[in-house]
Design a protein that fits this description.
Chain A has helices at 2-7, 11-21, 25-47, 51-63, 65-71, 78-86, 91-105, 107-111, 114-119, 127-154, 158-185, 189-212, 226-232, 243-264, 288-325, 329-339, 344-377, 380-384, 390-424, 427-439, 442-458, 463-480, 488-491, 509-532. Chain A starts with a helix and ends with a helix. By secondary structure, chain A is mainly α. Chain A contains 24 helices and no strands. In chain A, helix 10 (127-154) runs antiparallel to helix 11, helix 11 packs antiparallel against helix 13 and helix 16 packs parallel to helix 17 (344-377). Chain A is 75% helix and 0% strand. Chain B is 35% helix and 30% strand. Chain B contains 10 helices and 13 strands. Chain B has helices at 45-52, 74-78, 96-107, 112-121, 135-147, 165-180, 192-198, 216-221, 263-270, 285-307; strands at 5-16, 19-30, 34-38, 60-65, 81-84, 153-157, 184-189, 201-206, 209-215, 224-231, 244-250, 253-259, 275-281. Classes of the chains: A mainly alpha, B alpha/beta. Chain A binds chain B through residues 111, 187-188, 274-281, 285-288, 290-291, 294-295, 377-379, 381-390, 532-535, and chain B through 50, 53-57, 74-76, 78-79, 81-83, 85, 87-95, 97-98, 100-103, 105-108, 126-129, 131-132, 142, 145.
């Protein structure tokens, strides 16, 4: 008992430190995500007021593999089940929030050397990991309670509401545990974050692949993924509480492993050994761009590969989507609502590419933020003290922020197009059409990068917060704006609202030109601002 | 701008919000000299160097470096200078050697033989990833990168922080060679012995202002020599001499501090009492520094006292 008290000494103080750090971000995501289900339930009730309408809508979506891939299966009928189904993919945001929280307060602190400072005080070996998990678990639980209470207050069944809220809390816990494990493996916070997000992505793809095939498909794949578990609890259907045991088992195993590893390893080290590097720098390592490539190439390659695989899956599913729903009028209406153009496949791919555009923006903003982290970490100073102009240094990283998403989206579009084209039997035509649908997202992605660059020039300390906040707002508008029936004025705030709905939609040169002008203006503000300001 | 001045700064002001980091700083460094830039933490040494590098913008005053404007001509000037930051952070995934080569190539001139020699001298394993380097080893990477360049001006911000005594000696040897080869060095430091051993001239900075500047011998004039003497008889009348401080007389023994101007008078006064032994210690930079800061500190205290 004394040993346990020793290893956990100082946990309380660390928890308070974490809460002090995250006093804005943490309540923000808990509240926004916590209120989302009620808001969605409310608009779904507006859209489909009667039980008959809801049932027919559910029948359609369960029959549609493409929608099943994106959102998962629906279990049960009624408003609650409909809400739970519609939010089947949104739970990804919960996992993202908790895994980022855990990495930020474990490996990131350790790599920055602050953990060492704490380790010398009366802080037990396991206290930092324990404190980070405690906060992530607490936040997930608060989110789950908020979701349940909100749905019960809205008038949905108490059992279903609790099951649904608890499924979100468990999902948050599961990815907090994944992050705790990843934080033990590598020495770099960036790599730990990458591993956790990759696991999240793979779990999503497993669920999507498992659900896409309908009843005859490889539905066992869904059982390998926490995304699948969260839905197979069947909140508002016939709740299956035993599925929570799967969550609890996974969480227990991962946490146990993370704690064991963290107890055995040295401070600052990871499981993966560090190798010696080259004795001489290769001849190409001679410019700011070469340095930026060296720093950013891993992230770019990982995103490109990951998104290409995900898109290939969505491409394969695209074909089966069309087969099933070819002559279903109601489903056409649904598909039209999702994508906004006539052809069913076109609507499907337009919706998928809109989603990929948002994901690629995440990459692009991260790439642009390298500027700020290099500046804040002291990596900019030695470069700028060489014969390197500020513009050269900035553009070396901006090349990744602007051209990187083109590579990522190009690969994604190509993969989706090829996969769909091969199954549809018209590789040449479909590949180009889908590729264009992916690439047309770029102007909107660049607007978000432009906002980040402008902040970098003018308000550098707010670049990270502002950049991610703008993306979060766009995600909420794009994914929930229409279901929430927000006014057109608000929907139009997102640059993605002005991107042509390809394939199939009209290409408006005017709106693309406007987006381009906004990008140029934001970029100019950022570059001019940076030329004039101090290196902080 | 004359050729013999590598750095000339006058009335330099830089504010960060309400704090005045530099408050009318004057600094001049001649070509080919090694100048010490002394001051306690937070005096404005790093801020000065960052202005001289064009990383931050001056609010007012004049700053010229190698005949150019540090802000406007940054890129051109940086071909001719090398810099060791006060807080060396490296890219964790790059090896020491990669950092050294990269910085050298971006500056546009490396001396490969010198680089090899420096790596050996500083006993640095260049194949390790920067992530695994200790503070001292990171410092060595930055030093090798700067010293292996063919730059005519070296700006070194507390370059020996984190180095062990052996490496400090190696560093001193390097700076000695730089002086001989005619390079200009501005060495910011708070380690007095280092500056005393290496520098031709010293500028002492406090609260963003230069409070003393000159050659070491100039500055010593401003300071007191400590004298202790053993005499044949007990001396009298020493209290009346000008420039004599902290006087202690015990039988035949005398200890005191003397201003440079009072040394002559003291010796004349002592001779008639029969000098048996005489020990005089020249002021160290340390004395000078401490005296300056102690008196200033005391004045500030008194002012605070009076204000109460």
């Amino acid at each position: 008992m004394k040993g346990l008290a020793n290893t956990l000494a100082g946990t309380g103080a660390l928890v308070r430190l974490i809460l002090r750090h995250d006093r804005i971000v943490l309540p923000l995501w808990v509240t926004v995500l916590g209120l989302l289900p009620v808001a969605i339930a409310n608009t779904l009730a507006d859209l489909y007021p009667t039980a008959v309408e809801r049932q027919s809508y559910l029948d359609i979506v369960t029959a549609n593999p493409a929608l099943s891939a994106l959102y998962g299966h629906a279990f049960g009928s009624g408003l609650g089940a409909l809400t739970a189904w519609r939010l089947g993919g949104t739970v990804l945001l919960v996992g993202l929030a908790t895994l980022l929280t855990v990495i930020r307060h474990t490996r990131a602190e350790e790599a920055a050397g602050r953990r060492e400072l704490l380790g010398a005080t009366v802080v037990g070996r396991q206290a930092p990991l324990f404190a980070a998990l405690f906060v992530a678990f607490g936040a997930s639980l608060a989110l789950g309670v908020l979701v349940s209470v909100g749905l019960v207050a809205y008038g949905l069944s108490a059992t279903g509401s609790v099951a649904f809220g608890l499924s979100w809390a468990m999902f948050g816990w599961a990815f907090a545990a994944v992050a705790a494990m990843a934080a033990q493996v590598t020495e770099s916070a960036r790599v730990a974050r990458g591993i956790s997000i990759a696991v999240l992505g793979v779990c999503f793809v497993l669920r999507a692949a498992g659900d896409a095939g309908g009843k005859d498909g490889p539905s066992w794949l869904s059982w390998l993924s926490p995304f699948g578990w969260a839905q197979r609890i069947r909140p508002f259907g016939d709740e299956r509480w035993w599925v929570f045991l799967l969550f609890l088992g996974l969480i227990a195993v991962l946490n146990f492993a993370a704690l064991v590893l963290s107890a055995r390893r040295d401070l600052g080290s990871g499981l993966l050994p560090t190798r010696l590097g080259p004795a001489v720098a290769s001849p190409w390592l001679r410019s700011p761009f070469a340095l930026a490539w060296r720093l950013q190439r891993g992230t770019l390659l990982a995103w490109t590969a990951g998104l290409a695989m995900f898109s290939a899956l969505l491409g394969i599913v695209g074909e089966s989507a069309v087969e099933v729903i070819e002559d279903n009028l109601q489903l056409r209406a649904v598909a039209k609502q999702l994508g906004g153009s006539s052809g069913l496949t076109d609507a499907y791919f337009a919706a998928v590419m809109g989603l990929l555009g948002l994901v690629a923006s995440g990459y692009a903003i991260g790439a642009a933020l390298r500027l700020r982290s290099e500046e804040a970490n002291g990596g900019a100073e030695p470069v700028l003290a060489c014969a390197v102009s500020r513009m050269r240094w900035v553009t070396s990283h901006l090349a990744f922020a602007f051209l990187g998403p083109a590579v990522v989206l190009g690969a994604a579009g190509l993969a989706a197009g090829l996969a769909y084209g091969l199954s549809a039997g018209d590789v040449g035509r479909e590949t180009t059409r889908v590729l264009w649908a992916a690439l047309v997202q770029l102007p909107a992605v660049w607007v978000l990068v432009g906002v980040a660059v402008a902040l970098f020039g003018v308000l550098p300390r707010f670049m990270a917060f502002g950049g991610w906040a703008v993306l979060a707002v766009c995600v909420l508008i794009e994914e929930f704006g229409r279901p929430l029936q927000l006014s057109k004025r608000i929907l139009d705030l997102s640059p993605f609202a002005h991107v042509p709905k390809l394939p199939g939609g009209e290409v408006s040169a005017a709106s693309l030109l406007w987006l381009a002008l906004i990008v140029v203006a934001l970029g100019a503000v950022g570059l001019l601002g940076f030329r004039r300001r101090d290196i902080l | 701008m004359n050729d013999s001045s590598a750095i000339s700064v006058s009335g330099l002001v830089k504010t960060f919000g309400k704090t005045r980091a530099l408050d009318g700083l004057d600094l001049s460094v001649k070509s080919g000299e090694v100048q010490g830039f002394l001051g306690p933490n937070g005096a404005g040494k790093s801020t000065t160097l960052r202005v001289l590098l064009g990383l931050i913008r001056k609010d007012s005053g004049e700053a010229r470096i190698l005949g150019g404007d540090p802000w406007r001509d940054a890129v051109v000037l940086h071909h001719r200078l090398a810099y060791v930051p006060g807080d060396v952070t490296l890219w964790p995934g790059l090896t020491g050697r990669e950092v050294i080569d990269l910085l050298g190539r971006m500056r546009g001139g490396v001396d490969p033989e010198r680089r090899a020699e420096l790596l050996e001298r500083f006993e640095l394993d260049p194949r390790k990833k920067s992530r695994t380097y200790s503070k001292g080893n990171r410092q060595k990477v930055a030093l090798v990168a700067a010293l292996a360049s063919d730059a005519e001006l070296l700006l070194l911000d507390e370059p020996t922080s984190g180095l062990d005594p052996l490496m400090e000696a190696a560093f001193r040897g390097c700076v000695e060679e730089e002086r001989k080869s005619g390079r200009t060095v501005l060495l910011s430091s708070h380690i007095l012995s280092e500056v005393e051993a290496l520098c031709d001239r010293v500028t002492i900075i406090r609260d963003g202002k230069a409070v003393e500047s000159g050659t070491l011998s100039d500055l010593r004039h401003l300071s007191r020599t400590s004298v202790s003497a053993e005499l044949a008889r007990t001396p009298v009348g020493l209290e009346e001499l000008t420039g004599v401080h902290d006087l202690h007389v015990e039988d035949h023994r005398v200890r005191c501090q003397v201003d440079a101007s009072g040394l002559d008078g003291l010796l004349e006064h002592l001779t008639p009492f029969g000098v048996r032994s005489l020990l005089s210690q020249p002021p160290t930079l340390e004395d000078l520094f401490l005296r300056h800061y102690e008196t200033e500190g005391r004045e500030a205290e008194q002012q605070a006292e009076a204000a109460r």
